[in-house]
Amino acid sequence: MRISKLFGKTQREAPAEAETVSHQLLLKAGMIHQVAAGIYSYLPLGWRVLKKIGNLIRGEMDRAGGQELIMPVLQPLELWQETGRDLAFGKGLFTLSDRRERKLVLGPTHEEVITELAKYNVQSYRDLPLLLYQIQTKFRDEPRPRGGLIRVREFTMKDLYSFDTDEEGLNQSYDKMLQAYKNIFDRCGLPTLLVEADSGAIGGKASHEFMAVNESGEDEIIYCDQCHYAANLERAESVKGKLEAEKLRPREEVATPDVGSIEEVADFLKIPQSHTLKAVFYIADGKLVFVVIRGDIGVNEIKLKNALGCIDLRLATEAEVINAGLVPGAASAVGIKGIKVIADDSITSGGNFVAGANKADTHFKNVNYPRDFKADLVTDIAQARAGDECPRCGAKLSSMRGIEVGHVFKLGTFLSEKLGALFIDQSGASHPIIMGCYGIGLDRLMAAVIELNHDDKGILWPFSIAPYHVYLCPLYQESSEVEAAVEKVYSELEAEGLEVLFDDRKESPGVKFNDADLLGIPLRVTISPRTLAKNSAEIKKRSEKESELVPLEKLTEKLKELISN
RNA sequence: CGGGGUGUAGCGCAGGGGGUAGCGCGCAUGGUUUGGGACCAUGAGGUCGGCGGUUCAAAUCCGCCCACCCCGACCA
Hints:
Blueprint: H1 21-28, E1 32-36, E2 39-42, H2 44-63, E3 67-68, E4 74-76, H3 77-83, H4 85-89, E5 94-97, E6 103-106, H5 111-121, E7 130-139, E8 154-164, H6 167-187, E9 193-196, E10 207-213, E11 219-224, E12 230-232, E13 252-255, H7 262-269, E14 277-284, E15 287-294, H8 301-308, E16 313-315, H9 318-323, E17 340-344, E18 353-359, E19 362-367, E20 377-379, E21 397-412, H10 414-419, E22 422-424, E23 430-432, E24 434-441, H11 442-452, E25 454-455, E26 458-459, E27 470-474, H12 482-495, E28 500-502, H13 509-519, E29 523-527, H14 529-532, E30 536-541, E31 547-551, H15 555-564
Parallel strand pairs: 3-7, 15-17, 17-20, 27-28, 27-29
Antiparallel strand pairs: 1-2, 4-6, 5-6, 7-8, 8-24, 9-10, 10-21, 11-12, 11-21, 13-19, 14-15, 14-16, 18-19, 21-24, 22-23, 25-26, 29-30, 30-31
Helix pairs in contact: 1-11, 2-6, 2-11
The protein binds one RNA strand of 76 nucleotides through residues 9, 11-19, 28, 34, 36-37, 89-92, 108-109, 111, 138, 140, 142-144, 146, 151, 157, 159, 199-202, 218, 314-315, 404, 407, 409, 437, 439, 441, 475-476, 479, 507-515, 517, 526, 528-530, 538.
């Protein structure tokens, strides 16, 4: 490809709207163009990269036994209502109506469609196991798109769905995908960390995410250096610092004028926050829920949502709290009736806590569970923190941020039951198919590769997904022998099937070198009067400082060797 | 949805006590240059985010709205 003909220009200055490195470089390199918040066009260079990522993924999916198919973007809302996931997605679902007022959605994913498809094409255990996948555009009305391609509203996704007859089969499919994913990210030059994850709106049992560790990621990872426990903060566990058991003392009231928050209570009474009980109020699917947790620990809303089994969860407003007859700032579960109480298991160690007295400006001392109050459910709903102890080995936990580039789920039979995707086993009995699903966001993967492979000059693409392999860079071609020599080299390389980006512009060396670096093409071949004097061309790897002179007649061979390694 | 910020040429920005817009880059033409974003000359390019108000006069003052970015909430 000749740059003079290439659609898309590099920019000297990155648009001010871009904050993350990958976003800046993609815009500066002319690979993408923003159309609206979280909606992008791909220009030829960016599109080549995305296609390469797609093909690399295809290779690994096929190798694992996957079969590619394609499904509609436009899906009937009814299908989503059948599984109830229209509610789980809520506002994240793009909806529209056709001319007959039939409600449709722009598919945010395809589990429903594929399960329905499986229902009509799988009857017997002999049809299983099955691995089906798609690479296509999906839509989610994200509350806040951000970071360029890291979080968008229209995106390209690879999803593979597994169908098995039993748990063992599901485990095998799951392991196959874990291996395929490792291969994919390795081949993309992207180091990733496998972490335990929450399965979110999709439901299901086990779930893992592949994280590219990076500051511009949106997820917080809690991990242990000692035993390598790693989990998304959404589901991370930790040892909450057990307190010494205390001899229970009688409960008593204490006046706490103008004292509301846990910090204030602890300060006022000169006690550690861990000796208080915090009350937090949520509205779960429209109903008020009373949450009790030790004062020094935060509530993990994902865990809470899972514990409640609710679809919608939000903090209650002060008005809602007061309406329920509670006293914000001095509430506790002591004596509470008619409201669901969920407690974190942190309240079961230690004792003689300070908690609200459900009376303005008053707290109780020496509150103990279960002597003084009851809970409908006691479970782990705590936010893990760096510094906590590892739940596996007891070492100190740390935290870091990551970009979620892959997410795998053991779905189980939730969808197949709802949609009636059944198979007949050897004895003639009917069972729901056991499913798994395995996603990779290609756009985000592309961004993550840049986040982890760049320098101050630009991108450093690995060969596997670079838009071109060779940047052919003649200098001063208009006033010398260079023109003829470089044209000859170009046609030779093209004839050999090498992927060459030919900078045939009449630009100064600085401009060309800088663009070569910005675009991140792995190999740069410079031909100038200086190199021609030695009948040579200069090869420089994007990743290295030094260059090397190679005789023209050996150039093609040398480049092929570099590319294939 | 809450908090903060920004909208002026393709990109980066200046202007703003009211008088009809400027710089750098890029782009076009001509010339000079020649290994890490060259130089000179000439030129094209603007509903100053939108609507309304104040005024003889609004990029500038006032009001409303919109878009985009960042933090949070939310998020296969």
